[in-house]
Every structure is written in structure tokens, then in C-alpha cells.
Amino acid sequence: MKLRSIELSLPDPAAAAAFMVDIWGLVPAEVRGTAHYLRGSGAYPYLVAFEQGEEFVRSTTFVCGEDELAGVKARVIEKGWAARPVVSADPGGGHGLLVELPEGELLRFLTDSAEVAPIAGYEKKSRRVMPVKLTHVVFNAADAEASGHAVEDVLGFRVSDRTAGMVFVRCNESHHSTAFARAGFSSLNHIAFEMDDLDTVMRGIGWMRDNGFAPAWGPGRHGPGDNVYAYYIAPFGPVIEYSTPVEKVPADYAAGKPEDWTWPEKRIDQWGVSDKDFAGLREAEQRFRFRRDWESQPLDD
Ligand SMILES: [Fe+2]
């Protein structure tokens, strides 16, 4: 199971796509109708889709094998979650399920979706950076503990760590592909783009600075996941992150508790070299909510 893409609805997809290509570093993949699809240097046909409409998260897409899909499907039926079968009309195609989590997050699971040739060898001496793929998409939750248990029970995900602020969840060997923030409300928390390495994250920060953007938080190095990060508030709303790959953990990784992840006074990351715009980030995190604009349908066929 792997995180592949996020599909957003927003009023001006062309402007959002222009920022994500010209400044953030993604590459145009395709335009279909009002939908702009953007890719990274990795093998996924796209990482973000912007479709014209009101502001909301249409879906977050995972790709998986037939067996994994069958397992998710059986447990979703057993729990009676809202869901429907889907055939993807997005680049890469594939088929599977669209599932609504208890707090409204919409996750899509696809199998048989195609990949594309990775992009190699862009000029490292240029200022340009290019994200590889998504490394995690984090959600705000009213009850992050319940969300963590729900995705363990129904989706087969595993909680990797619990902190005072987050429940980190993995769906493969990466420490987290998603997480639920203890926010008191449900929404998109942030979208994290995986960069090749620490140097690329830092060059991304420089390129953003050249273009007039300062991090809302970072650079820093997180505790859980051990990734280097820099968070920005995108001009079209959501919080986006440059990140190094999160650490890989073994299948029997023992989930840490909040008391295992504490910081010395004045610290909220390993380095302590940057400030965090708490108010700005919280405001941005409230913009993109989840909206199920489809009816639940039987999954048995
Ligand atoms: Fe993150």
C-alpha cells in the first residue's frame, strides 16, 4: 500500500497549478477539463490534482495490490462505512474503492493504476528543485485516537507513534504516510512532498525565498519520522511541506507514546533553529474540509 496523490477542488486550479509548477517545483502532467494534474520526478502519473469548484478535499489516493484492496473492501463492508466502487478517470487509471472515514476523510484505494517513467537528471546547479512524490498527507481530527484505531481496524494501517499532538500512521515500511492531528476539528492539516535529500529541501527553501516566500515553520527535523521539514502556506490555501524521506521502520516497530516524545523547554523539533507561525498555520489548516459529493453504494458485485 502506498500513498500516491491528493485531489483538491478549488476556485482557481490554473493559478494553483502555476504556483506549484513555477515556484514549488512540480511538473505539469496533464489538463483534463478543468482538472490540472501535476507530477513529481518519481513514477506516479500525478501527485496533485486541482479541479475547479469550491474549496474542499475530493480524495486522497493510495495504490495497492488486489489482495490489499480485497481486504479493505471486506472490512469496509463489515463496518458499514460509506463507500463506493470507483474506476479512476484520472491519469494512470485503475479501479478500486472510495471510502469515507468516520470523520469524513475521503480515501481512495486503487489497484492496476499505471506508472510513468521517472524524470532523472535535472540540473542540480540550477535553483530549481523537483519533489519526487508525496511522503505524507496529514489530517486534523476531532478524535485522533479514534481515527487511528479506525484505520488500523478497517484499512489495515498501523499506528507508528503517538505524540501530544499527533497519531502517526503507516501503511508500509515508511514511518507514516498519514497522521491525525489532535485538532478538535476535521480538515486537511498538510500535504508533504518528498525531496531527494536534505540538500534538496534546503535548496527548495532558498528557491522559495528567492520568490518571496518564507517558511511558516522550519527548517527543522521532526522527532517521529526523523524527517527534515519546511512548511509553507500556499497562496491558494493549504499548508504544504518540503520533506526528506521519513525513516523506515520494521513491521514489529513498537509504537511510542506521548511521554516517549517530549522536548526540552523551547524546543518542538530536534534542531531548534526556526520559529513556527502557529496562528497562520492553524488558519490555513481550517480551509480545506472534506465533502462527500457521492452516494454510498454496495461494494458487493
Ligand atoms: Fe509533515
From TrEMBL:
<feature type="domain" description="VOC">
    <location>
        <begin position="133"/>
        <end position="245"/>
    </location>
</feature>
<dbReference type="Pfam" id="PF00903">
    <property type="entry name" value="Glyoxalase"/>
</dbReference>
<dbReference type="InterPro" id="IPR004360">
    <property type="entry name" value="Glyas_Fos-R_dOase_dom"/>
</dbReference>
<dbReference type="InterPro" id="IPR029068">
    <property type="entry name" value="Glyas_Bleomycin-R_OHBP_Dase"/>
</dbReference>
<protein>
    <submittedName>
        <fullName>VOC family protein</fullName>
    </submittedName>
</protein>
<dbReference type="InterPro" id="IPR037523">
    <property type="entry name" value="VOC_core"/>
</dbReference>
